[in-house]
């Protein structure tokens, strides 16, 4: 034991006082000696003198900071040396700890005076734990509050780590030793969490830098979790209880603003405490669970939101779902909450779980199930949130955590009925593709195998482009915006990168998406014409200052604006915007728009013009930006411009990234749509032709087609290079049939056409026989020579016609086999069948080439008879009837398509009889799926291009019995698109077609009056009505089918009863539809004529009256009709089917007397000749295999209007004649 050596007085007795310097010296000496002594090594009695002097008021309250600082250090050492018993009275301890607290304020920073003494004091209190003495003092609460306040204030980022540790240790000792912590202390601790600001609305909490005060509070909560649990629970309970009490009387009442802020603050605290120290919330979690079931929406929302945020915490070692299973289950039930706001917050929680890698597989499966359910939520905001949340994820998370079925449903939302959902879904898909593009492009570099999810990303452009078939203008605007911004990255100015991106995208498109994509490029030239017309009128309009022809210019301006506004979902706003633009009379804007459309500009120039135009128009009127941004995209050659040609040719030549085939396909497409962009690159294309090895397996067809298309449009730019001429001639005579076709076209546009033509004809006819080496190539060349050089070829017409019929068409070198397939693809089809197909094309091309010649109709009759015979005999063309089935299928398909091609020419359309037309129409129900599919596709294409008359819509509706559902739905979508276009133009072409359709059904080979057969035929009519009938058109349709009974069948008068049966059948179906939809069948104000080539008016009044009164369909059939319509469930809810139909009949414009069919009419139907051919409606399912051209997007249906007093003849798309009754 040692004794304290210090023996100087610290406090001078009497009036004499020690100087400040002396006091400081003595305190330093004392503090140094006390610091050197360890506890239990110093003689207790030797400390008595200094113990008494150190608590003297003179030292503790000395005016000098240094004196107080050293006094505090000495007192801390005394408490250390005397521990565990403090040598002071409670009153003295109060003064001592007041001194301690004041001195600890000096820890603000190292620059503070006496910082070392303050740190010494802090370290002593922490290590000796003498701070616990403060808890039992009379002013302990006040000192505790002050100490907490001081420590939280001086906790700064610059503070050394050991200072923070000591402060936490001291505060933790106080918490553990205090019987009851002051409420202000609890508030200070919690304020470190709630003072961070509101929780972020983003579901995936970002890692943020926390202040030292927060870290101290977090450490305290973890160290003293058990002691603080009750304070947290009490804090939360008090606030929630007070809020509950204010709404006890009415749970629908909203909390006042102050109370709501308090409740939100309490829930924010719970979340932050969960992040910092989950164990501290042990008593709060059950209260959160109770809130989830509360009646008040505010409490359910706050608790749901709080738990959703908790699920985002990744730093925790605990699994929320396992630690709080009951709470997790209750929270999951909020997915079905009646409030959409709560369901949205719940969704955020699901995505928090999804991106949190700490949860189990079972939990992830539950989350995915919940997300899928909310994709089809009744509230559009919920559906939108799903898309928005998915779009906020990073690429790695989506690739690794999101299953493909979730992504599939996302693509479905791009077709949502609500615009806000579609926008989010489409932008989300675009963002995902943009993020995944680098991985997708690796497919073509063969650098790695992609997982299933990444492969799904490559299909995103197809999913987006499919929305074009919805035929909604708002969707189309959104589609193009997403396509250019995310999929094609239109802001990329590197031509090679941008072109590669387009090629990669195009290669992954499915057939429907390709057609949609190609339609964008094909339609661009149409919009350019409209834009040029509009700009020309704007210049003449001159901002409203018109010098002459004012009325004509105003009319032209209105016409141009009417065309332009039809592109927009909101035509009213578009019209106002285009009118406002015309009044601006800004010539610079006109110039910039023209620069955007100019095909001679490269992409950088186009992009620069776009940016300047949009910037300038925003300065003039920001309200115009939305309308004109879409307009600029529509008229600019964003896809096909001169800048993409060189990169595409490079990909074609060197097969970079395995994209040569795709590049050739796009080269061909560009040549068809924008051949002028090749002007600067014609040399490169000709080089491709010259360097191509004709013996290689790689086809040069597309390249030849590009060049042929270019020189057809710009014959003045054709090359005179003899090497090129030699290469093209070689392709014409020794290339593949498709290469020969394009090569001949090029040769016929050459400068030396006459010499080349003579030599070419001689070469083709030289040794023209079935066994010759290049027989198919010569036939292909012959088909083009016949078409483009008719005068020269007519001299040899008898020679090649006789050869084709006798040695090619009527002779089968390959005969039918027992196991013969009904279809094979073109690439494995035998040359003999290909020769027969080319022979038919040559015969038809001869007619096309001579369409304006005298006597062409007589020339055409044998060809039409041949084509009709092929279809009548199901493709059998040989007298021996030994043609293989696969040949027959291809031949009858080609015959049907050639008839369509001839029908597009008015001179030949007149030759096609009704009987031949009906034979051709039955190809829609051909036993071979590929024949049906390819014929219908060609038919739809010609109808889209408005090349056919109205009667060609009739075969389309035979698709009603199509067994391949996917193909049927594709056709249904096309019909709906046509109907939409027709209604937008206020025409009724398709509705008028019902009388033609019924006439065709009456001549269908399957028709009979057997009840089951009639039900089958009713399905045709019902299919037609479901697609076309509306409350507005129902009266027209009913009037048309009624009018049939005032006519007889001009084609086959003895079978007119068939028409009347189908008329009554149609009327019954229309009545069922009207009844189920609560529609009224009103009297149609016009009296319509029926097509004069099909129907003739009944001239005998007695017979006409008898037919009008007779009912050709029994009641039991009418009852069966209800069962297969989609309205059956609605109808069955009524009292009686027959009773309701009778009720409807009472209000029909023509009253009928009910009677059974007469025996005479029945005998007429029974004695009809049995059909030569019956369709096969139940066919084996097959995959789509398409040959030939695809359909294009719906273009335009011609409108025909008439006055109310007129009598309209339902005739054709071209001319709906109107006559006075």
From TrEMBL:
Subcellular location: Nucleus
Example GO molecular function: DNA binding
One annotated GO biological process: DNA repair
InterPro entries: ARM-like, ARM-type_fold, Pds5
SUPFAM superfamilies: ARM repeat (SSF48371)
Superkingdom: Eukaryota
Keyword annotations of the record: Cell cycle, Cell division, Mitosis, Nucleus
Keyword NADP found: no
GO cellular component: chromosome, subtelomeric region; mating-type region heterochromatin; nuclear chromosome; pericentric heterochromatin
Pfam families per record: PDS5
Main location (coarse class): nucleus
The keyword Glycoprotein appears for this protein: no
Gene3D superfamilies referenced in this protein's UniProt entry, alphabetically: Leucine-rich Repeat Variant
PANTHER family the record matches: ANDROGEN INDUCED INHIBITOR OF PROLIFERATION AS3 / PDS5-RELATED (PTHR12663), PRECOCIOUS DISSOCIATION OF SISTERS 5, ISOFORM A (PTHR12663:SF0)
Protein's recorded name: Sister chromatid cohesion protein
Organism: Pneumocystis jirovecii (strain RU7)
């Amino acid at each position: 034991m040692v004794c304290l050596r210090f023996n100087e007085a610290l406090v001078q007795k009497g009036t004499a006082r020690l100087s400040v310097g002396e006091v400081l010296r003595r305190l330093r000496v004392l503090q140094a000696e006390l610091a050197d002594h360890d506890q239990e090594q110093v003689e207790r009695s030797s400390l008595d003198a200094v113990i008494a002097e150190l608590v003297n008021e003179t030292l503790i309250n000395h005016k000098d900071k240094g004196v107080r600082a050293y006094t505090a250090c000495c007192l801390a050492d005394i408490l250390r040396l005397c521990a565990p018993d403090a040598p002071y009275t409670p009153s003295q301890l109060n003064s001592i700890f007041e001194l301690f607290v004041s001195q600890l304020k000096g820890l603000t920073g190292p620059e503070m005076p006496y910082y070392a003494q303050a740190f010494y004091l802090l370290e002593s209190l922490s290590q000796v734990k003498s701070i616990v003495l403060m808890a039992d003092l009379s002013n302990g609460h006040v000192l505790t509050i002050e100490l907490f306040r001081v420590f939280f204030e001086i906790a700064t980022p610059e503070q050394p780590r050991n200072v923070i540790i000591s402060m936490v240790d001291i505060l933790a000792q106080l918490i553990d030793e205090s019987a009851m912590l002051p409420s202000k202390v609890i508030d200070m601790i919690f304020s470190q969490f709630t003072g961070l600001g509101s929780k972020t609305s983003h579901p995936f909490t970002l890692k943020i830098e926390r202040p030292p005060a927060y870290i101290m509070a977090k450490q305290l909560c973890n160290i003293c979790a058990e002691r603080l649990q009750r304070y947290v629970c009490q804090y939360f309970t008090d606030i929630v209880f007070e809020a509950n009490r204010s709404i006890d009387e009415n749970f629908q009442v909203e909390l006042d603003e102050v109370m709501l802020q308090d409740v939100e603050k309490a829930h924010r605290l719970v979340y932050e405490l969960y992040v910092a120290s989950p164990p501290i919330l042990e008593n709060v979690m059950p209260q959160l669970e109770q809130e989830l079931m509360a009646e008040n929406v505010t409490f359910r929302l706050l608790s749901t939101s709080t738990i959703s945020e908790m699920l985002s915490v990744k730093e925790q070692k605990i699994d929320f779902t396992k630690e709080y299973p009951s709470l997790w289950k209750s929270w999951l039930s909020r997915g079905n909450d009646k409030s959409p706001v709560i369901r949205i917050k719940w969704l955020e929680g699901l995505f928090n779980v999804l991106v949190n890698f700490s949860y189990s597989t079972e939990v992830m499966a539950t989350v995915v199930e919940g997300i899928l359910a909310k994709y089809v939520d009744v509230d559009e905001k919920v559906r939108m949130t799903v898309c928005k949340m998915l779009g906020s994820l990073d690429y790695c998370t989506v690739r690794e955590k999101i299953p493909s079925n979730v992504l599939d449903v996302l693509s479905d939302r791009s077709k949502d009925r609500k615009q806000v959902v579609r926008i989010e879904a489409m932008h989300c898909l675009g963002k995902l593709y943009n993020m995944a593009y680098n991985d997708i492009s690796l497919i073509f570099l063969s650098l790695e195998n992609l997982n299933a999810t990444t492969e799904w990303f490559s299909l995103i452009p197809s999913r987006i482009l499919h929305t074009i078939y919805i035929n909604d203008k708002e969707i189309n605007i959104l589609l193009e915006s997403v396509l250019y911004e995310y999929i094609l990255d239109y802001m990329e100015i590197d031509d090679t990168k941008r072109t590669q991106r387009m090629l990669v995208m195009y290669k992954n498109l499915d057939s429907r998406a390709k057609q949609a994509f190609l339609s964008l490029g094909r339609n661009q030239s149409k919009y350019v014409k409209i834009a040029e017309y509009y700009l020309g009128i704007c210049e003449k309009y001159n901002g409203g200052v018109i010098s002459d022809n004012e009325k004509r210019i105003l009319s032209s301006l209105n016409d141009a604006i009417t065309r332009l506004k039809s592109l927009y979902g909101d035509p009213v706003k578009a019209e106002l915007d285009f009118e406002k633009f015309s009044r601006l009379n800004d010539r610079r804007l006109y110039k910039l728009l023209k620069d955007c459309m100019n095909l001679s500009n490269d992409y950088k120039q186009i992009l620069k013009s776009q940016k300047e135009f949009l910037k300038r128009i925003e300065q003039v009127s920001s309200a115009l930006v939305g309308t004109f941004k879409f307009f600029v995209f529509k008229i600019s050659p964003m896809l096909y411009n001169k800048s993409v040609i060189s990169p595409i040719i490079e990909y074609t030549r060197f097969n970079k990234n395995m994209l040569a085939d795709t590049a050739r396909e796009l080269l061909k497409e560009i040549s068809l749509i924008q051949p002028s962009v090749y002007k600067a690159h014609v040399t490169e294309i000709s080089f491709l032709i010259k360097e191509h090895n004709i013996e290689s397996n790689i086809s040069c067809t597309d390249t030849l087609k590009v060049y042929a298309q270019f020189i057809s449009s710009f014959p003045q730019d054709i090359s005179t290079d003899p090497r090129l001429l030699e290469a093209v001639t070689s392709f014409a005579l020794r290339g593949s049939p498709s290469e020969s076709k394009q090569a001949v076209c090029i040769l016929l546009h050459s400068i030396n056409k006459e010499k080349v033509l003579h030599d070419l004809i001689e070469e083709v006819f030289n040794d023209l026989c079935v066994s010759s080496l290049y027989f198919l190539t010569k036939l292909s060349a012959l088909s083009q020579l016949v078409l483009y050089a008719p005068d020269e070829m007519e001299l040899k017409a008898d020679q090649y016609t006789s050869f084709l019929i006798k040695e090619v068409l009527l002779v089968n070198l390959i005969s039918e086999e027992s196991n013969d397939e009904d279809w094979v693809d073109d690439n494995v089809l035998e040359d003999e069948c290909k020769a027969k197909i080319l022979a038919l094309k040559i015969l038809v091309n001869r007619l096309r080439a001579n369409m304006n010649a005298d006597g062409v109709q007589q020339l055409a009759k044998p060809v039409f008879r041949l084509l009709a015979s092929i279809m009548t005999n199901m493709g059998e063309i040989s007298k021996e009837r030994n043609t293989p089935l696969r040949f027959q299928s291809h031949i009858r398909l080609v015959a049907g398509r050639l008839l369509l091609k001839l029908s597009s020419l008015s001179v030949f359309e007149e030759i096609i009889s009704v009987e031949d037309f009906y034979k051709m129409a039955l190809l829609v129900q051909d036993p071979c799926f590929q024949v049906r599919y390819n014929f219908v596709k060609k038919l739809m294409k010609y109808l889209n291009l408005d090349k056919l008359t109205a009667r060609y819509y009739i075969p389309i509706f035979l698709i009603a019995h199509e067994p391949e559902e996917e193909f049927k739905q594709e056709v249904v979508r096309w019909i709906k698109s046509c109907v939409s276009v027709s209604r937008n133009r206020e025409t009724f072409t398709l509705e008028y077609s019902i009388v033609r359709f019924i006439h065709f059904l009456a001549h269908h080979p399957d028709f009979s009056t057997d009840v089951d057969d009639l039900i089958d035929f009713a399905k045709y009519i019902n299919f037609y009505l479901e697609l076309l009938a509306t409350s507005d058109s129902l009266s027209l349709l009913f009037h048309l089918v009624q009018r049939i009974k005032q006519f007889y069948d001009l084609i086959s008068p003895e079978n007119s009863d068939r028409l009347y049966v189908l008329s009554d059948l149609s009327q019954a179906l229309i009545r069922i539809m009207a009844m189920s939809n609560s529609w009224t069948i009103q009297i149609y104000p016009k009296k319509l004529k029926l097509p004069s080539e099909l129907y003739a008016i009944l001239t005998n009044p007695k017979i006409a009256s008898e037919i009008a009164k007779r009912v050709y369909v029994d009641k039991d059939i009418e009852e069966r009709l209800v069962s297969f319509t989609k309205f059956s469930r609605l109808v069955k809810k009524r009292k009686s089917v027959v009773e309701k139909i009778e009720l409807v009949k009472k209000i029909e414009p023509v009253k009928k007397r009910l009677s059974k069919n007469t025996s005479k009419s029945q005998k007429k139907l029974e004695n009809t000749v049995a059909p030569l051919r019956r369709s096969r409606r139940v066919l084996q399912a097959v995959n789509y295999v398409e040959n030939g051209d695809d359909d294009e997007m719906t273009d335009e249906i011609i409108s025909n209007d008439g006055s109310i007093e007129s009598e309209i003849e339902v005739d054709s798309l071209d001319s709906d004649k109107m006559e006075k009754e």
